[in-house]
Write a structure and sequence with these properties.
- This is Sulfate ABC transporter permease subunit CysT.
- There is one protein chain.
- Helices cover 79% and strands 0% of the residues.
- Helix 10 crosses helix 11.
- The chain is globular, with a radius of gyration of 24 Å.
- The termini are far apart.
Length: 277
């Protein structure tokens, strides 16, 4: 009895589809779900009391609060700078534009430790900029400004890449109508253009904020690691691991993980509402 070619093809297609889905799910579970779940399980291994004791330690929660503050500053800076750069890259044509557009993604390609080293060399006490700052009575490296600069560097592409597609796909008729009615460039931007790119700004900003919270490689080289002043949460976690206090490291990690997951959840909700709109 001969096999039906259509049925055989259908079975092979279904088998390949199930196999592909299973592989993707296993990959997702092994590399993402299990490590995250492991951190949560380990943090609460001894119960709620040790977990609360770890995160209520003054050095720990001050490190978390400092990280939140500096990440917020870096995010605001990225929103302002990133919006302007995205606007220039989309709306203007100039020599070197392609190279500049490629350089936007450089922080993704570079190891973050290299970024920290560049900041150290360019803004450190022995550098030209660092020398001028020292003469003016303030320091950059090993203080909070250097941490903010490092966070801005590693999160630089997020806002730009989130806004660019929206600007490229924007219908020019509404903007032209605004100019025709006598609106200025500033009024047109804030009333016509800005509302259309707000979802990109918000999504890019939240991704940048979430990424800045976890930055370690660039920060550890240029932060003074002084509790309540320059000790960030990621560096605190590293110090706890080095001190063989894995529970304390896991407890602070849970705080950062939970905050990052909430941010990603909120981004997805915003994007879904934007898609339905």
């Amino acid at each position: 009895m001969e096999e039906d070619p259509v049925q055989t093809s259908w079975l092979r297609h279904k088998g390949w589809t199930y196999g592909f889905r299973t592989t993707v799910l296993l990959y997702f579970v092994i590399l993402i779900v299990l490590p995250i779940a492991g951190v949560y399980v380990y943090a609460f291994t001894d119960g709620w009391a040790p977990f609360w004791e770890s995160i209520s330690d003054p050095i720990a929660w001050k490190a978390v609060l400092l990280t939140l503050k500096l990440a917020l500053i870096a995010t605001v800076a990225n929103v302002l700078i990133g919006t302007m750069i995205a606007w220039v890259l989309v709306r203007y044509r100039f020599y070197g534009r392609t190279v500049l557009n490629s350089l936007v993604d450089l922080p993704f390609a570079l190891p973050t430790a290299v970024g920290g080293l560049m900041i150290l060399l360019l803004l450190g006490p022995n550098s030209w900029v660092g020398g001028i700052a020292e003469k003016l009575g303030f320091d950059i490296v090993f203080h909070q400004p250097a941490i903010v600069i490092a966070m801005v560097f590693v999160t630089f592409p997020f806002v730009i890449r989130a806004i660019q597609p929206l600007l490229e796909e924007m219908d020019a008729s509404a903007e032209e109508a605004s100019y025709t009615l006598g609106a200025s460039r500033a009024a047109t931007f804030f009333r016509v253009i800005l509302p259309q790119i707000v979802p990109g700004i918000a999504g890019g900003a939240m991704l940048a904020f979430s990424r800045a919270l976890a930055e370690f490689g660039a920060v550890v080289l240029i932060a003074g690691n002084i509790p309540a002043k320059t000790l960030t949460a990621s560096v605190f976690i590293y110090g706890e691991v080095e001190s063989d206090n894995n529970l304390g490291a896991a407890a602070v990690s849970v705080l950062l993980l939970t905050l990052s997951l909430l941010i990603l959840w909120f981004i997805n909700r915003v994007q879904r509402r934007g898609g339905r709109g």
